[in-house]
Amino acid sequence: MAGTAFAVAATAASVAWVRISADGHIYTEQSVPEAPVALVLGAQVYDDGTPSPFLAGRLEVAQRLLETGKVRAILVSGDHMHWEYNEPGAMLRWLTSAGVPSEKVVLDHAGFDTYDSCARAHRIFGVQEAIVVTQTYHLPRAVALCRRLGVAAYGVGDDSVKRYRVPWLISSTREHGACVKAVYDAVSGRDPVHLGRLEPGVDEALAR
């Protein structure tokens, strides 16, 4: 009983921290302040290299942000730990096929989770300010972590995939546990799984 009570309390406190940290920093596409770069967080890619509807929804938002001048470059961050599975590559292909110039897209191949994507955006790619793009249920956690890690982040969320009711519900429910991990990561200040050298890609994309 005590263990259950502690878990419930820890989850509630973590969710509260995420929501408070993100409060006032989540916008619609139309109202979001301009920022140099959109940070698109990775999600599932199918075996044929096609982005899942959840990932495609995020990419559609980023494409519109670039087209309307809200951002001047797009940083796609996702899992490419194994050669045969490449989220950033799939994101680049989707964006360029939709008409986004390839020189405006920067790839982060080591965005293994939300914390790593935010930390690497700041520490490896030098991002100081960004619009974070993901689904709305994930957005408060993403914004909270990015702001904790040094990125002045605004969030714009995608709701287009709410039509996939079961996956949406499952993912939304899992966010409670993910908030606990987010607090642990934020407090520990751990390094990302992979750091590596500084990357000039974002600065180069902005200069073009």
From TrEMBL:
<dbReference type="InterPro" id="IPR051599">
    <property type="entry name" value="Cell_Envelope_Assoc"/>
</dbReference>
<feature type="domain" description="DUF218">
    <location>
        <begin position="37"/>
        <end position="156"/>
    </location>
</feature>
<dbReference type="Pfam" id="PF02698">
    <property type="entry name" value="DUF218"/>
</dbReference>
<dbReference type="GO" id="GO:0005886">
    <property type="term" value="C:plasma membrane"/>
</dbReference>
<dbReference type="InterPro" id="IPR003848">
    <property type="entry name" value="DUF218"/>
</dbReference>
<protein>
    <submittedName>
        <fullName>Membrane protein</fullName>
    </submittedName>
</protein>
